[in-house]
């Protein structure tokens, strides 16, 4: 096993230990019992609270939760996959080290493994690990709480390296690496990152196919492809449950096909651009990188860094406030993280995709130094993926890809593709350095001159002439004008001095210009440092290559550490107790929690209702936080709830509203006496031919008296007309997320409406009357309805998705195959290594 990587095994252990030390130093507040305050993890805590409570009582996680958006499968929130041994094994990586040390160590450690497996010496692999793991994109994602994304990013490099090794006919080593890290990658369950990596690797396979034809080694290509395909099938099979239920569910979410005709945009006569089988295009591209924003790769503050930044005493903002209101107010306001120094094309950002000035320089140098044609594949990925990150800012290319490329329209926030860009830029940079020893020094000096001239020249130009290229306002004129107007109005209102507000805006532009200039010269200095030491190596014999790599590693560490600390730093860590306060109950929550009713919904208007899951920590919320909410629920939000249709909120059993008390700003609970309860009988039926008619009828529907049913579902109950019994009763008698029990009594057959989300057609919710299977239908656009016989009966709804239970069987079979195959591969590799030794 000592020969898994090139070089001595002890050196690899030492390098990994050094990476662990650096990671721990970066996260040193963890040693003081502090925890990273991550927005998305707080949201995830709220979203999963009902599931966790159920798990504590039963030892199992339910497959359905009513805590968000009226109800939804818990597949995207939290469930167990007991029979997926691979998922269970992979999950341990999240708990070996304290959070977030574990995630950053995985970023650096996995990249080190990838580079070492590719045959790089420990020092080169260490440099690559530092360059990739401490670049800003992954750490900014971690600060936001995107844990699954960071895991997926970490596992990309060794997975890609394993597949490359298989195609290089290092079958055993490549297969082991591929199997282990494909398992990890799929466990991370961030399909978007995995999808982007898959695109790059499919292109690589095509390139290898062409090369195999030209070199007449087509047999070897098919052997390699069979190995990769076989591993993929087994690993996917071992996680069949996870992917089967998600594939089934996504078709009914906002990532699936739209049923409604698009709304015309007010005042413009244009329609929303709806995808036939995925996200709406405008929504998918709402976070798109600006074309010129790409210079953030080289200069972190090219567009101002992050949306809410703090400023120091040297800033123009500070001086402007000081001149009018004194030092104390200047320090108070300027140093708060509130200033819109960012002026890029995104709605907002936590920081730039800074690849590192030295990495940009080494990447360009590698294009000269590396002789293997594989470098053009890497360059192509970097260029094309950068263009994809531009999203709606490069519509000629990206709209075509969105509309025609398989599955591409299932994902939003295309800027996250920068993770793959960073991976290939650092990979090629390390490759270039590893080939320095084989490069003629005269040629190397020429290559260095070109590289310094190109990359350093850009930094120099933006330092000297940045103000000539940039207005320091948003590129869209309308957005720029609105931003300016809002800023000036807010400061006019705050200061009651219009001239001061205008001076503040000019100071803001000055500070933006200063941010670009300062970082441009900073990047130039790092490029000159790296280029200078490389030139010293090329021009003389005084510098050993080991010292050269160590020096470059130190420069990269200082560069990227300093920039990343702007966005993920000690101030982001809070005492563990303070993190719990983010989901502490308010007085409004406590009042609602006194209600003995087991099942009703709450509308919290004091938060961003449909982008916040903290309410779900205590209540069954109308809102929530999820990128995969049911499309029909989102339709109601867009067309009815946003228009304050109280009848819709009443049918969703919205018993309480949390609003802001105008006298003190505190949340207060208000009871809604018109909420319709858990179930009721209706007197009449309105039928609709399609979804558009269903939605139109919802505009004026009185759901207490009438139900809207599509013709498709009405036919299933044979156009039943209820004979209304005013004395009939129906009530919920037992609740848990996966099983609801009702009792009713009626003198005549009735049409019952249940204030529960319809998710059937074989998807899992099954109905029973007195223990016998019964059909139920969709009514009122997304609720459940049922034709029930006269008399006194018991109705049950049970969530029993066959995809989950069948998937568990498949997962177990393939988990066994995976364990046997992995064990055999390790044995063969060990045997081969022993023979070689």
Name the features.
837 residues; alpha+beta; 5-stranded antiparallel beta sheet; 4-stranded mixed beta sheet; 21 strands; globular
Can you walk through the features of this model?
With 837 residues, this protein is α+β, with helices and mostly antiparallel strands. It has 28 helices and 21 strands. The strands form 7 sheets. A 5-stranded antiparallel beta sheet has the order 14-15-21-17-18, with no helix packed on it. Strands 8-7-9-10 form a 4-stranded mixed beta sheet. The protein has a 4-stranded antiparallel beta sheet with strand order 11-16-20-19. A hairpin with a 4-residue loop joins strand 4 and strand 5. It is globular and about 100 Å long. The chain starts with 8 loop residues before the first helix and ends with a helix.
